Structures are given as C-alpha cells and as structure tokens.
Amino acid sequence: MRLREIRALVESTGDPAFAVDGLGLIVAWNSAAGALFGVKAEETMGKPCRQIVQGADECGLVCSDVCTVLPAARKRRPISNYDLQIETRQGRKWCSVSVLVAQEAESTSPYCIHIVRPTDIPKRLELLLRDFIVTETGLPPKSARRLGSLRHIPTGEAELTKRQGEILRLLVKGATTASIAAELHISRTTVNNHVQQILHRLNAHTRLEAIRRAERTGSV
Hints:
Strand content: 15-25%
CATH topology of the domain at 3-119: Beta-Lactamase
Distance between the termini: 37 Å
Shape: globular
Helix content: 40-55%
Number of strands: 7
CATH superfamily of the domain at 3-119: PAS domain
C-alpha cells in the first residue's frame, strides 16, 4: 500500500486510528483519534507515537523509545490485541488496541496502523475481579489473569534471547544473581548484564517490575 492509501484507510475508519512508520513516527491521524486524544492531526504529524499516546500498562509506562510493536511488525509477526492505558482529553483511559501491518512498495519498513477502542469500564472491572480472586483464593496473578479476558499487553511482544528467557524465569522463582550464575554456569557479571538487557527490553526499571510484567503477559 502507498502512504496516501494508508492515510485514506485511517481517515475512513470510524474508530480512533493512526498510523506510524518504521521509526514510530506518526504519518496518519484520523478525526476520531483527534476527538479521543484531544490532539489535532497537524499537531501529531512526524512526532513519535509514544509522545502522543503515553501508553502504560498495569506496571507503568510502556510507550517509550524501546517499542515492542515495531520489531514484531518488521518481522511480519501477527500482533495480538492488547490493553493500554492512554492519555486522552478526559484523562487516562483504558483502551483496546489493534495493530494492522501494511507494507508500502517503496519502503523497507512496514507501517503500523493502530485502531483504538475505549474499554475503560470493562478493563477496570477485569482488574478488580482479578485482584479479588488473588486476594480471596491466593491464586497466583498469572493464573488469575487467565481466568478472565485480560489481553496481552505490549510487553508480551518483547523479544528475549533464549538465555534471557531462562534468567527471567529464574528471577520469577526468586533466584538471586549468585544462584542464577551457579545454576547456569556463568559469571555474576554475565547474569547482571543479561538482567540489564531484560529490563531494557521489557521497559522495566527494576527486577520486580520486570517479573510483574512477565507474569501478567503470560510470557513466563
């Protein structure tokens, strides 16, 4: 599809929608998105998606310079719908986000068309239900999430190496740097380097935050 066709498609969509290029810069923004975000199209063109959307999940900010959607799109991997709390003109609201990947003939990187559907009340009810289940039954958050309809958040699209996946699973079990190093027969410095890469890819600031995100996306 050519860029003008992508823009026409976005504009013809009744739901709030916008498109970004391979660098995450906004190239299309429809009137419904303007009404939801309270930002006009001309104010968004060429700006990083993360600056406008300011998306967050249950653990904190997701939209950053470490985008997990764009790498998946470049590899032509299907991207599942996910829930994201975004900055709207009425404050922060939960929305369901669908991503369509469109390739332009002259471009080596695909465009990502985001379709945003407000789901604030249902999402908040889901979170309350999950927290209630965890509190009343002692069920792990990961298992409680699977009982409801909570959708994977962008963290679930993050690509970890096999070794990083092993270390993350050990962190979830409560392993320390020393115990991980002993079990995997690597140095503590190597473990810490892998942990820093895990934090970077999951857009987390602490090990606990990375663990929480991994548990809630079902990636461990």
